[in-house]
Amino acid sequence: MNSLRNTAVIAAVAGALAALALNTLVSPARGVQNELVPPTSGIFTGVQYSQKLGDAFRSLASCNKGATAPANVNGSAVDGLCWIDDSGSPWVVKQYVNGGWAVTGYLDPSNSTFAGLVGGGLGTIAAAAITDLGSVAQANVTISGTTTISGFGASAPDGTVKFIRFAGALKLTNAAALAVPGGYDLTTAAGDRAVVTHLGSGNWEISQYTRANGVPVDASAVGKPDFTFADLPPLHLRGDGSAVSRATYPVLFAKLTRAQNGTRVSGNATITGIADTTGFGAGMPVEGTGIGAGCTIAGFVANTSITLNSSACVTSSGTSTVTVFKTGYGAGGDATTVGLPNCQGRMIAGRDPSGTNISSAGSGIDARAYNSFGGGQNGSIAQNQLPNVAPTITVDASTARWNTVAATGTSAQSGSSGSFGYVSSLFDGGASGGGVTNYASKPGLFAGSITAAATSINGGVTQQAINKMPPTLIADCVVRVTP
Prior knowledge:
- Keywords: Signal.
- It comes from Bradyrhizobium diazoefficiens.
- There is one protein chain.
- By secondary structure, this protein is of the alpha+beta class.
- Helices cover 12% and strands 27% of the residues.
- The chain folds into 4 domains: 62 residues, no CATH class; 89 residues; 162 residues, no CATH class; 43 residues, no CATH class.
- The protein contains 5 helices and 29 strands.
- The strands form 10 sheets. Strands 5-6-7-11-12-9 form a 6-stranded mixed beta sheet, with no helix packed on it.
- β17 and β18 form a beta hairpin.
- The two termini are 84 Å apart.
- The N terminus is likely disordered.
């Protein structure tokens, strides 16, 4: 008896499969929402039972395509049940999840294409040192809180893309685990958005970052110096040397400073292991772990070390980040600010690392250093800046009138007139030195010429150059190029 029953069941299943195959071959694609669970009671012929199995298979094959939601698992929907909603165009692919229908994609019947859904709702996660984005199912995630983030975890599949919105201000630490555009730490603001991609092994990259205020992530420290409009354009500040908040302008802060590792020894003013000293100059403030307040650069060895203005500046030993403020703290600034370049009344000159074109001796400007300034609008000429010359002076006496010289008895040397006499010499030295001798004292013209040689004017001093440098500020001259 059992053998006959088993044979009947096998025949019914075989018949259902055959009917399904035949229906697939001869019928156009169509959606059905038949009961998926075969009956467990009642009397059916083999053909009837196979038909019910075929209807169930057709419903599964068509993803329960129809204009209304299927409820065909014993009269209801169950988690994971598939449905193609064809009530509109494109068709919407849905799946039943915990009492609701989640959209998983779209089908376009006009060109037989599928469009996957990116999103799946909105997720939220609190900021943490490692903010595990893989623990959030949604592609659109809001990160709340202000904790500094150094990575997004390794639990998400490789290639996962997340669309992030930040609810507040926090720091994204640039590192291998979190590659930030520009290569420096980035401070977020409420409403900022980012697109991040998991590269594998817990390493993520920020491929796009959009600020809520529209400021680009990578901004130049100094813009064009020329500006003639009545008001500043949006997102610009005047280059007036003022102090601005580091927290308000984090990108500008990163551009106007240079942060790199350095090794310090307590009580030693020299910090070694400084890889890049480009643009450094005396007087630039320096900050970092184990470095006291008010410390500045006194000197440096190119791409090797910097020396601070006092050995008391270094209060502990170790290797850590050393930050140099290329434009200082700004007028009236402090440890919370960074200075703007001061272009007021100054020409802009390109930085000259070799000092060939602008020498500090002639201008008072360290042309190697960013934001160095000097020169002057006015200046006094010193004696050693006057020309040193040895001219020859010639006087044509033929056109010169000589007045009568009245000699007293004591001054007259000799002559035919006791009243006047004559002058023996018009020049010191008489005939041997002056060139005019025994000329009668009377009005008249002298027919010869007088020549005297001067040894020098302004002699006996070491000549110095005149400073011709106008008020000048040093900045890098750059050329924008495209590949």
